[in-house]
Amino acid sequence: MDAKRIVQDAQSRPDLFRIDIDGRIGLTEERLASRVNYFRDGVWSLHNALRLMSLAKANWAVIALVYALATRKEGTLPVIVKKDEGLWPTLDLLAAEYPQVKRELDYAWAGGIMVTAQVQSALLRMASARLTAWEYVQELRHLVSADGRSGQFCLQWSVAELMSRLLGEHVQEVFDPAGDASVVPVVLATSPGGSVKANAVFMDPFAQYFNQLQAKILGAELNPLNWDDLGPGGSAGGNYAHCISAPPLGG
User: 176 forms bridges with which residues in the sheet?
Assistant: First the structure.
């Protein structure tokens, strides 16, 4: 860590940081006043903490922790200090369903207190922002879209929202034959009353994970399908009145 470089970076962004007389660096009052931006800063702190153990990427684990925050029951503390308490029951369920979540969490936890203390601090700050389910989904999408490699799995919100609006207000079910670009969660988030059911085909495991967790945060129904289910004699064949999709941007 180059202290001089950190100060230079802070000085170059007066819209984000202030430097006190004693040299301490802090966020500007305007930045602190925005709970969404405050939460977003916490997400990046969380991401950096999980990468301390030389993880090239930690998106599966970060998304799992944000999901656990977003779906925790009233009165559940946002802590990861002790197993079987706080967020761990939710994290354990995700780790059992998605092996990559377990691998990334196990790798990060190998760093001991050096990692867990920073993760816990970030989670407490993020929880204090008190986001809505809709805001949690938007922040997850911001995290993924900002990554050069996983951004292909997150079409820009405004584009997906336009596609949703074109469907109209009386749609009850939609089908996405190429769900990796993550249009369906925006349809679910913006539908009146959250009554839309969605069926989607996913080609990439991360895309399916990312989409399903968004839907669960919203309390919406998303049914992942594969082409074998849809083919002749498949268990999920049927007719759909409304289809919505974006190109599979990664291939």
Answer: 200
